[in-house]
Write a structure and sequence with these properties.
Helix content is about 65%, strand content about 0%. The protein has about 300 residues and is mainly α. It has a two-stranded antiparallel ribbon with strand order 1-2.
Length: about 300
């Protein structure tokens, strides 16, 4: 990718000059060309986003969280005490992580200043929140949603490539920058991150019965695919010698981080979080595989 800063038409990262009253000269990026401050966000049609001292209330993103909480509460009440408390706590933790990602200053800082903060937000939305939400589900809770056409999305042959494609496409500069500029596009990005993450963890953790062939061994192999797909992308950010996203190049410098250092911090966060989560799930699946092997061995050795 080429850096921004060349003459008009010479770079895919060119942003038109802003009026002098709105220009902010980056302290650490001197240039002989007019300073360009890209717009980070323009509200989409029908959006009503409120930001107060870094805290954000965006109905477009909070409404689905409230709807999910209401649906879960209705199903738990209808099932009575048959839903373990640890399952309910896990689901609520997943929703709480979404609220943290959408409401706290992590959202506003990630949108206007730091790629690394935006990366942390996306890890909450697309990885950790879906993981805990899926751990809070089972077939009884999901019964009203078990439509065959929807259930096929949780097939490992669909969920894994869909998750990887979604992850990589949204980190292409053209789509990433579009999400930074428009509320509706950004909400779509977050919705797809969460949905694809939930489908991924549903395929791997199987709160619903999965394909018979997709046993624990295959799930361990699929987990390796997840680590490689995310690890390669995180290393692109970690070892690149130039920043990919112009809005962060022209953003005010924060905590003394240059745009490139900020991008590398974001890549490091992604690699660290993914390694910890994949390792934890790998150990859990590995122990389960050993227990299954022991049960099979006892059945073989038991007298007829």
């Amino acid at each position: 990718m080429r850096r921004s800063g060349g003459p008009a038409g010479s770079s895919v990262f060119w942003f038109p000059p802003q009026p002098a009253s709105s220009s902010v000269a980056p302290a650490t990026h001197p240039t002989t060309h007019p300073v360009r401050t890209p717009r980070f966000r323009s509200p989409g049609p029908g959006t009503a986003k409120l930001t107060v001292v870094g805290w954000t209330v965006d109905p477009l993103q909070l409404a689905p969280v409230a709807a999910a909480a209401a649906f879960y509460a209705f199903r738990v009440r209808s099932l009575g005490r048959r839903v373990p408390r640890r399952r309910t706590a896990s689901f609520l933790l997943g929703l709480a992580l979404l609220v943290v990602a959408f409401v706290t200053p992590l959202d506003s800082i990630g949108e206007t200043r730091l790629f690394s903060a935006h990366m942390a937000q996306h890890l909450l939305i697309g990885d950790l929140a879906p993981l805990f939400v899926v751990l809070g589900l089972d077939a009884r809770i999901l019964r009203p949603l078990l439509v065959p056409r929807l259930r096929v999305l949780a097939s490992p042959l669909v969920a894994l490539p869909l998750w990887a494609l979604d992850l990589w496409l949204w980190h292409l500069p053209v789509l990433y920058d579009a999400a930074l500029r428009d509320d509706a596009v950004h909400a779509l990005e977050h919705a797809l991150f969460f949905t694809c993450g939930a489908l991924l963890w549903t395929a791997l953790l199987q709160p619903l019965p999965g394909p018979r062939w997709f046993g624990t061994g295959w799930r361990l192999a699929a987990l390796g695919f997840v680590w490689v797909a995310g690890g390669v992308l995180s290393n692109v950010f970690l070892w690149s010698n130039h920043p990919y996203y112009p809005p962060y190049v022209h953003a005010p410098r924060t905590w003394g981080l240059s745009a490139l250092a900020d991008q590398r911090v974001g890549g490091g966060l992604m690699l660290l979080e993914m390694s910890v989560v994949v390792a934890a799930v790998f150990v859990w699946l590995g122990l389960r595989w050993l227990r299954e092997a022991e049960r099979r061995q006892r059945l073989v050795e038991s007298p007829m």
